[in-house]
Amino acid sequence: MSELIEPFRDLLRKDVLWSWSIDCDSAFNKLKNILTEMTTLSNYNAKDNFTIQCDASEKALGCCLLQNNRPVYYASRCMSDTEQMYAQVEKEMLSIVFACKKFHKLIYGQSIVEIFTDHQPLISVMKKEINKIPNNRLKRMRLKLMIYNTDVKYCPGKYMYIADLLSRNFIQRVEMTEENLSDVVHTINEVEVKFKNNKIEQFREETNKDNNLSKILKYLDIGWPNKITEYGDIKHYFKIKNELIKENEIIYYENRIIVSKELRKYVIEKLHETHIGITKTLKKRKQIFYWPGMSSDIKNFVEKCEICKKFSVSKTKEPLLQHKIHELPFQKIGIDIAEVERSNYLVVMDYYSRWLEVLSIENKTSEAII
């Protein structure tokens, strides 16, 4: 645009003779075409379908409401200092909340609100049940979106140029957002992990000290690389990167805390402190903690537990009983009693022919059966 209006600037310079040249005429016509093309806003039509594009940069949010691929409404705002410290997935979710609030009068009550984001990890968050989102900030924002029938989809950033531009070319003014949930009523049930404050702080410290987890914290802030050349835990976490969320310097996978190597023994001891078996210990950990190879670590720990060895009851498997092969029908039969709708039946099966008989009986006494 600035290049197009260059001939007009020449006309406004001091001590320059005003002359409408061919260049001015050409620039004028091009400007008229631009102002009448798709880059300008079109009128909203309640009968047409619409889409919303949302994006979040380092310091701002941007969104656009479109109908038939033409913009109807632009919106952007600068984030507060606190919001700028959010993880990227939280910023992207905030951009969706901001868009829905801005376009509320146009989208409220619609059968479907199609929203596009270029942040793929957000898709898995939107698909989760609210009580399975460990991040409380994301959970609160999801609650705010419940009044809309949202369908959030992924779109590569190169096709999200409108929202991307708005989030980077913003007005330097912070718009305050209302954080209360007075307009939403919902019940949340979640697994609660009870630790003392000093132990929670230890989880944070060890997460930052751990070589692998400290890298993941960094990736969750600035974004994951396209490829990982490292092996071990980092490669494993890369495969589930879309499911990882950071909150208060602790990393969560789904609704479980990812434990650093330093605290894994403590966690296993905590899970097994009542000396329950391997199966119950594994079931208990699935609700709370996660790390690669956790099942194997727990199994090895429980098998080596001296107290469990001392007091556990041996579960020796009984060998299968072999039956003699009979030569004639009804040399040997098997019987059982079945009850259906308060009526008693005797089920008889011949071992030789596999013939089945079902006989009605008045009661379950031995006399009636014989």
From TrEMBL:
Matches recorded under SUPFAM superfamilies: DNA/RNA polymerases
InterPro entries named in the record: DNA/RNA_pol_sf (IPR043502), Integrase_H2C2 (IPR041588), Retrovirus_Pol_polyprotein (IPR050951), Rev_trsase/Diguanyl_cyclase (IPR043128), RT_RNaseH (IPR041373)
Record keywords, A-Z: Endonuclease, Hydrolase, Nuclease, Nucleotidyltransferase, RNA-directed DNA polymerase, Transferase
EC number: 2.7.7.49
Residue span(s) of domain Reverse transcriptase RNase H-like: 47-148
GO molecular function: endonuclease activity; hydrolase activity; RNA-directed DNA polymerase activity
Domain Integrase zinc-binding: from-to ranges: 259-311
Family matches, as CDD domains: RNase_HI_RT_Ty3
Coiled coil: none
Pfam annotation, one family: RT_RNaseH
Protein name as annotated: RNA-directed DNA polymerase
Species this protein is from: Schizaphis graminum (Green bug aphid)
